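Chapter review: from sequence to fold.
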Amino acid sequence: VAAQNCRKRKLNKILNLEEDVRNLQTQKESLEKEHCQCSKSISWMKQKLNNLYCDIFSRLRDDQGRPINPCQYVIHCSSDRSVFVIPKHLVRSEQKQNNEKEQKQK
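The token string follows.
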């Protein structure tokens, strides 16, 4: 009787583990689909952002009326929703300063 009960418990554990495996496989498939959808969405948003960026720079002009070179400037959005066009070299130097501050704090 003890051996029979032991075999029964073992069989139940195996069945439970098999069910867990099936559930995890279903969950994995679901997460893979979600990941694919998220990747597509991110790609679409990046394309839209790039189009917007190009559109903005195609309309911007400097003081002499010449188009602004997007390779030399970046668009910066602040937390108060203000939008600025900033020379890239200023952004790089600001990032360096921030990185140095972070390293000093560590």
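Two observations follow directly from the output. The mean pLDDT is 89. The CA atoms of residues 31 and 37 lie 10 Å apart.
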